[in-house]
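Appendix C reproduces, verbatim, an entry submitted by the partner laboratory led by Prof. M.T., so that reviewers can inspect both the input and the predicted structure.
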Amino acid sequence: MTLEILTPDKKVFEGEVTAVTVPGTLGSFQILKDHAPIISTLEDGPVIVKANTGTETFNIKGGVVEVLDNKIIVLAEAVVA
């Protein structure tokens, strides 16, 4: 599964992942391989990225997520340190 995390000014992350947890508007949810297609709004909070190399966390300021054919795109307003 591939993940891209984008902000208006740069690409923050791109790579192969095994699981992604995002802060949905109605609560956080996890995306795994072969997830049903979805588009959801995101709140401020952590995007937790799990890959074979380990776990990374990106704190985002709102946005949207799209999942289609094992490709996940997170469009975030901003990523904060």
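The two ends are 25 Å apart (CA to CA). Additional entries are available on request from the coordinating office.
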